[in-house]
Specification:
about 150 residues, mainly beta, about 70% strand, elongated
Length: about 150
């Protein structure tokens, strides 16, 4: 008797852009493709694993990636790696997170050239006890929404 498969979804739009479906959704196992997890590939990809210009999934990679593990130009996730990264652990050019590593790192623990946070380590830092003027100038110029005083 074959095993029962629960909760698998496969949907794909007919429209394509650059050879990719506009929307691809792949959640759950697919015995026909011998996939344990669904891998969505499209302009908008939603799946257990998602690859696309906008990728949403447990593991997501693409232009804008949102997921447990996210890799993208702009990424949001538990572990986030990207040019601009936001997550529990964020690694990127500009990284915002509980733990942040990047050129400009902002978080509870931050490591970067410019580092802002509770525990900040870098060339120029802003912490509760130290305010490097170079870091303050950088934040005022490039991250004005943080509104440092």
């Amino acid at each position: 008797m074959p095993p029962q498969i629960y909760g698998n979804i496969r949907k794909q739009s007919q429209q394509t852009i650059f050879g990719l479906p506009l929307i691809d959704i792949a959640i759950g196992p697919d015995p026909e493709k011998n996939e344990i997890r669904g891998h969505a590939r499209g302009i908008i990809a939603i799946g257990d694993i998602a690859t696309g210009w906008l990728a949403i999934g447990g593991i997501a990679s693409g232009g804008i990636a949102v997921g447990g593990v996210a890799l993208g130009i702009i990424s949001l996730g538990g572990l986030s790696i990207g040019l601009a990264a936001l997550g529990g652990l964020a690694i990127g050019g500009i990284a915002f997170g509980g733990g942040a590593i990047g050129f400009a790192a902002i978080g509870g623990g931050a490591i970067g050239y410019y580092a802002l946070g509770g525990g900040a380590f870098g060339k120029y830092v802003i912490t509760a006890t130290e305010h490097s003027q170079e870091a303050v100038d950088f934040v005022k110029q490039w991250l004005p929404f943080l509104q440092l005083k």
